[in-house]
Design a protein that fits this description.
2 copies of one chain form a homodimer.
Chain A lengths: L25 H14 L8 E2 L1 H8 L3 H13 L3 E4 L3 E4 L6 H23 L2 H20 L2 H18 L3 H18 L7 H17 L2 H26 L18
Antiparallel strand pairs in A: 1-3, 2-3
Chain A binds a DNA duplex through helix 3.
DNA sequence: ACTTGGTAGACTGTCTACCAAGTGCTATGA
DNA sequence: TCATAGCACTTGGTAGACAGTCTACCAAGT
């Protein structure tokens, strides 16, 4: 499950674009593999990541692993301590909050620009996503719901036409997805109602309204997170530092 | 691209823990050196960067240079072409525009949060910076003006208390500073008047006003940039591809 | 019991060397 | 003139080596 298939596995190529061969740099694949493992919990928070270990685990040499780790560090997935190595980032108490606040700003602005620029096809696509998402939600398919949600948000930022916003938002979204998957189910129906209103505002070209709805939407998400925290972890006994766990054989 | 540097710099350290200086990894120094060289024009836009060349230039081996180049690529300072090398990024026509738009969103939100959280000392610091900046401006010290301007903006984002906003804004600011230094002088006095109003709004805790002033402020900057473009390059003869210039001199 | 000193092992950071494959340039040939 | 074959150069990736540093652990001294 851990070996990197440089292969074109996830063939989401737009039809007709036949990349004769895609020599994706190894570091890229390693990066993807590691984020995935972090998100799905294979690599627990606080765990010490050892280069050679990862390297042999993924069937590559140290170099690509190093490069991937450095990128992960830059993007806040792991913390690199000089001379010691990388630990999977352990999110601070207030971090999710700040993350969602940043997301609110980025996506709200994106929504505003999307309302300004969206074409008919764009709007149609958003409508479709809304429909699919609602269906997933009603069917209780959490994974599908989360995925469609992410797709909708990313589509909207994409439509802002601003590559920096797209870029930052993508980063933030990915992090949010990590911290926060457990929250998603909570506010299913309401979330999709808001999405619908948002898409309408965009289709009407009502910039202010789109921006405002998106802001409130993200804000609701934040509230939901806090409520979950409050109920789920009254005190949090601070799980005894998984920090320096190593297999100490014989 | 882009990164969230979770570096230990933004010390949210528990009071009293003063980590002594930790030997900076070489790649870090290389990264700094290269951005500096890009900003100050030593490495012109479009120039082909060769790893071994940079390595010997900086007195290190290929490895740290590679790692630095990858980071520069992620953050949009250079473009990495597989199998060929890195070229110093040549900003596209609309790129500055998008950059400033993103900045508007980020800094506007920061200003809002700063207005919410700023302490008395914070406000005092901002006032001081305004005074210094205005003085520089009146004295015609462009370098000082630009520096103080950057410091003021970065102080405000810092006061937002949101590390993600701080981080993104820092990145954007650095890029803006690169693209755009020539514009700065143009709108000196007006800029500092706006700064003063902004600081007042923050000190009053008027979130909406602070956000709005910051947005307009950035917007003015964007306009100024466009006006400069319009006058300075009526047609832009598209300087004969600095792309593949190499020292081929006899 | 607590501190100090020493030891050992594990990793990173960096360097060197090497090779395969891809890219751009150039000179050759039709 | 235009295609093309060949060449020089550069990256991407691998392997191995070594110093410095970090952690843990043990032993002796206070």
């Amino acid at each position: 499950m851990t070996t990197i298939s440089a292969g074109p596995g996830a063939g989401a190529e737009p039809a007709g674009v036949r990349h004769v061969k895609r020599p994706t740099p190894l570091r890229e694949s390693v990066y993807e593999a590691l984020t995935e493992m972090i998100i799905d919990g294979t690599l627990e928070r606080g765990r010490h990541l050892v280069e050679v270990e990862l390297a042999s685990m993924l069937g590559v040499s140290r170099q690509p692993v190093r490069e991937a780790l450095q990128r992960l560090n830059n993007e806040g997935w792991v913390d690199l301590r000089p001379g010691f190595g990388a630990m999977v980032h352990v999110p601070a108490e207030d971090e999710v909050d700040q993350l969602l606040a940043a997301r609110a700003a980025l996506e709200s602005e994106s929504a505003r620009l999307a309302a300004r620029h969206a074409s008919k096809e764009d709007v149609a696509k958003l409508r479709e996503l809304c429909k699919v998402g609602t269906a997933y939600q009603e069917a209780g398919d959490i994974d599908g719901t989360v995925r469609t949600n992410a797709e909708l948000h990313s589509s909207i930022t994409q439509m802002s036409g601003n590559r920096f916003l797209v870029d930052f938002a993508a980063q933030v979204d990915r992090r949010v997805r990590w911290y926060y998957t457990p929250v998603a189910p909570m506010r299913g129906a309401a979330s999709w109602r808001e999405h619908n209103r948002l898409v309408k505002a965009i289709s009407d070209g009502d910039e202010d309204k789109a921006a405002q709805i998106m802001r409130e939407h993200t804000e609701h998400t934040r509230k939901a997170y806090h409520e979950l925290q409050a109920t789920a972890e009254p005190v949090e006994p601070a799980e005894p530092a998984a920090a320096t766990r190593r297999r100490r054989r014989s």
